[in-house]
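Hello,

Our lab assistant flagged a job as stuck in the queue for most of the afternoon. It eventually completed. Since we weren't sure the result was trustworthy after the delay, we are filing this so someone can double-check. Below is the sequence as submitted and the structure that was eventually returned. Let us know if re-running is recommended.
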Amino acid sequence: MGMVSSKSVFLGFQLALGVLAACALPAVAQTVAASAPTVAATVAEANTNPYGLEALWSGSDLVAKTVLILLLIMSAGSWYILVVKLLEQAKMAKQARAAQAFWSAKTVAEGTQALESDSPFRFLADAASNAIQKHDGLMGHIPVNDWLAMGIQRAVDRINSNAQGGLAFLATVGSISPFVGLFGTVWGIYHALTAIGISGQASIDKVAGPVGEALIMTAIGLAVAVPAVLAYNWLVRRNKAVMDEVRAFGSDLHAVVLGTIKA
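-- returned structure --
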């Protein structure tokens, strides 16, 4: 009897593995090919959020889209006014520092010419000069002190009115945008419940989508209102600081012009 060598056993084992691999590879390839569409569909489904803003826009009607567009306009207008008013206030603060050179001039006319043409302090100085020039006729019966004070006060009021421009829009947006969003929510929930009633299915997967999309309207309304309210309060406080500089300049200008006349 001959004994089987270890080398022969090893060769036989390799041959068996080769046969098994040859039989298994086609089955594995078929399994991978069959699962590829399923994986692709899973990835595509993960990339598409059925409860996001895109689904809200595509599934909404004309009223809901109008509410969304209105909220978008309010938000864009609020941010535009915030940026513009900040630039205006920064410019007025810079002009207030430059206006300190006015008091170093020898005459009111010389100091006025040294101010920037679009400066509110230049506007005050011109208003004081025009008040003195127009103090004749029936206006001449008004004491010059009162007439000059009236002219400067009118100029201050005009500057304050220009500084307040746009703040009413921020106040309006801060007040009504939550209610606009709430209206969109109520409208969306109404249509969601109507669709659920027609379909006759009230499971959580059928309710979560439409109701969640409707509630997004409230979130958008709050997202529009909060920045508008904060911007309004901030700009009002900054306006107050700038207008204090304008009023102080007007008071000093009144005293200087009146002293120049009496001299």
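-- support follow-up --
The delay was a queue issue, not a problem with the job. The result is valid. The CA atoms of residues 204 and 211 lie 10 Å apart. The chain has two domains: 1-48, 53-262.
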